[in-house]
C-alpha cells in the first residue's frame, strides 16, 4: 500500500485522506441512522398508549429519557395537548424541520469527496505525464519500458481517484435514501400522534 502511494506521487496523499474521511462519515451516519430507527415503533406504541390515557407528563418523561429526534418531536406535540389540531400540527412541523436538518449532516461533504476524488486523480495523472514528457525532453525517448513505466505510474492516481469516488457515490446515495426514509417515518408517526391528541 505504501509502495503504491509512493508510486502515485504527491496527489495520492489527498486521495487517501479523502477515502479515510468518506469511510468515517459513512460509518458514523450509518450508526446514527441505526440508532434513530431502533425502537421508533416501540416508542410510538408506548406514547400512543399513554396519550390515550391522557398521561401526557409521563409520556414527556419517557420521550426525554429516549432522546431521539422522534422523541423530541413527540415532546412538542405532547406539550401542545389540548390545543387545536392545526396548532399542534404547526408545532410538530416546526420541531420536525429542526430534527430533520441534522440527519443530512456530513452528506454534503461526502458528495464533495465523491466529486473531487476523480479530479484529484486526473490532476495527479496530468502532473505525472508532464514529468514524463520533461524527462523525454531532457534525456530523449529512452526505452519503451522506461516511458511505459512513467506513464503507468502517472495513471495510478486516476485509478485511485476512481476507486475512492465510486464507493463514495454509492455510500452517499444509500445514506441519502436512509435519511429520507427516516424523515418520512418521523412525519408519519408524528401526524399519527397529532390525530390521537386531537381525539
Low-confidence stretches: none
Distance between the termini: 64 Å
Indicate the overall shape: rod-shaped
Largest sheet: none
Number of domains: 1
Oligomer: single chain
* Structure class: mainly alpha
Beta-strand content: under 5%
Order of H and E elements: HHHHHHHH
Q: Helix fraction? A: over 70%
Query: Overall pLDDT, averaged?
Result: 86
Radius of gyration: 26 Å
What is the total tally of β strands? 0
Number of helices: 8
Please provide a brief summary of the model.
The protein has 199 residues and is mainly alpha-helical. The chain contains eight helices and no strands.
Your description of this structure?
With 199 residues, the chain is mainly alpha-helical. It has one domain (2-198). 86% of the residues lie in helices and 0% in strands. The chain contains 8 helices and no strands. It has helices at 2-8, 12-37, 40-52, 56-66, 69-79, 85-100, 107-139, 144-198. Helix 2 (12-37) packs parallel to helix 8 (144-198) and helix 5 (69-79) packs parallel to helix 8 (144-198). The longest helix is centred in the last third of the chain and has 55 residues, at 144-198. The protein is rod-shaped, with a radius of gyration of 26 Å. The model has no long low-confidence stretch (mean pLDDT 86).
Keywords:
mainly alpha, 199 residues
SSE blueprint and pairings:
Layout: H1 2-8, H2 12-37, H3 40-52, H4 56-66, H5 69-79, H6 85-100, H7 107-139, H8 144-198
Helix pairs in contact: 2-7, 2-8, 3-4, 3-5, 3-8, 4-5, 5-6, 5-8, 6-8, 7-8
